Amino acid sequence: MKLGIFVIVSIVWLCNCHGVLVRFSNSVCTTLEGYDGICLRRQQCEDANGISSGTCASDLGRCCLFQRSCGQSSSQNNTYFFNSKYPNTVSTGLQCTFTIIPCNSNICQIRLDFLNLILSQPDGNGNCIFDSLVITGSASGNVPVLCGENSGQHMYLMVDRTNPITITITTSVAASLERSWNIKVTQIACDCPTLAPNGCLQYYYSQSGNVRSFNYGTTINGNNLNFGNGSSVAGTRQISNENYGVCIGMVPGYCSIQWSQSDGETSSFSLSNDTAAASVLDGLPSNGLRGENCTTDYVVIPNPYFVNGTAVNADRFCGNQFPTVVTSSKPFVLRVVTNDNELGDAANRGFSLDYTQQACSNLGFMLYNMS
Ligand SMILES: *[C@@H]1O[C@H](CO)[C@@H](O)[C@H](O)[C@H]1NC(C)=O
Ligand SMILES: *[C@@H]1O[C@H](CO)[C@@H](O)[C@H](O)[C@H]1NC(C)=O
Ligand SMILES: *[C@@H]1O[C@H](CO)[C@@H](O)[C@H](O)[C@H]1NC(C)=O
Ligand SMILES: *[C@@H]1O[C@H](CO)[C@@H](O)[C@H](O)[C@H]1NC(C)=O
Ligand SMILES: *[C@@H]1O[C@H](CO)[C@@H](O)[C@H](O)[C@H]1NC(C)=O
């Protein structure tokens, strides 16, 4: 019976970093702090500079927690990179680098979970000129630079063989703020079922969920967009120069996907055009723009239909309002594009969109989608 259980555990963790022969499986365990650790022998954990936090494998192993801070590196799966003394905050100017080393040559992707990521807001044009999080060394090419509030966001990075990936967080004394970060780093083996489709910066695989732009928020950026003539308007929360894909893993039996603006949040879609007067009151001018009228900052949803079955006949959406649309174009991808300035786009907040995959038996939709 015991042997049977052991075999099952080993199969579940096929994509395990620790191929070493031990009497128990080096599977993922939960530490006393509630983090993901790896079940190792106590000595193994110590040798790898981990912290033993609770037991695992029927008390044979220790749940080993890997935490690293500025200037350090890690080749351990499920390492947490945080500012020193986290959850204490950082108010000084610093440059902090952390290096992720693939734990073996069979790692294809790294998933970053920004459990906590609070940096200063971008300037009025959406450029991260004060604080920034910059990623280098990823085989995904250019990864958007981040700043502002990104707790709860995630990213997938492709790995180029055993080349390390570096995260550099810079904080500037020019902006006064209590910053903090705690980033979970998951290494994903090339044969692991949890790999994202290649090229997707973000990947969601639930039947329904919520997708937000980086630094999305309902409040406005405190930094202004200054014109040369001495006047200024409220700046944007959107990060400039982005061009990435958000993939939604198709759940078997679900053939189309509906996208809608998140309810109950002021400005849950404001990608271009002035969102509020310079005096910055909450509220939306009631106009959504589409297709050829979206040329600066927009999202793309291929071949969409309104819920009444009429084709939208445009796939770019911008402005200050988003209509509920459905598409059966596969794979399910939402693309996000922003340019390098916010002229004419005062006080934009970004987007919060809800998606719901719709069952293939949704005949109503299939009928009008056959035309
Ligand atoms: C790393 O841990 C995650 C669980 O947090 C697991 O899904 C993944 O397979 C592990 N990766 C490797 C390479 O062992
Ligand atoms: C300053 O320039 C902006 C952008 O060109 C314009 O909208 C605004 O009216 C100008 N303000 C003044 C006082 O000239
Ligand atoms: C809205 O933005 C579009 C381009 O993004 C621009 O052509 C249009 O003039 C703007 N409209 C207003 C009212 O600002
Ligand atoms: C773009 O805006 C113009 C002017 O408001 C409008 O006539 C046109 O239908 C719009 N195009 C799309 C694709 O919505
Ligand atoms: C379907 O909904 C869209 C968006 O609300 C509207 O513009 C269009 O006229 C509607 N079509 C029909 C046939 O009711």
In short:
The chain is built from three helices and 26 strands. With 371 residues, it is mostly beta strands.
Describe this structure in words.
The structure is a single chain. With 371 residues, this protein is mainly beta. The protein has 3 domains: 11-64, no CATH class; 69-193, Jelly Rolls (Sandwich); 196-371, Jelly Rolls. Helices cover 6% and strands 36% of the residues. The protein is built from 3 helices and 26 strands. The protein has helices at 2-12, 42-47, 363-369, and strands at residues 28-30, 36-40, 51-56, 61-68, 73-74, 79-82, 94-100, 107-118, 132-136, 154-158, 165-171, 180-189, 202-204, 208-212, 224-226, 232-234, 243-248, 254-261, 269-270, 288-290, 298-300, 305-306, 316-319, 325-327, 332-337, 350-359. Strands 1, 2, 3, 4, 6, 8, 10 and 12 form an 8-stranded mixed sheet that branches. β1 and β2 (36-40) form a beta hairpin. The longest helix is centred in the first third of the chain and has 11 residues, at 2-12. The protein is globular. The termini are far apart.
SSE arrangement, N to C: HEEHEEEEEEEEEEEEEEEEEEEEEEEEH
Distance between the termini: 57 Å
Number of helix segments?
Answer: 3
Q: What share of the residues does DSSP label as strand, in percent? A: 35-45%
CATH topology of the largest domain: Jelly Rolls
Ligand catalogue: 2-acetamido-2-deoxy-beta-D-glucopyranose
Main pleated sheet: 8 strands, mixed
Helix share bin: under 10%
Going by CATH, the architecture of the largest domain would be: Sandwich
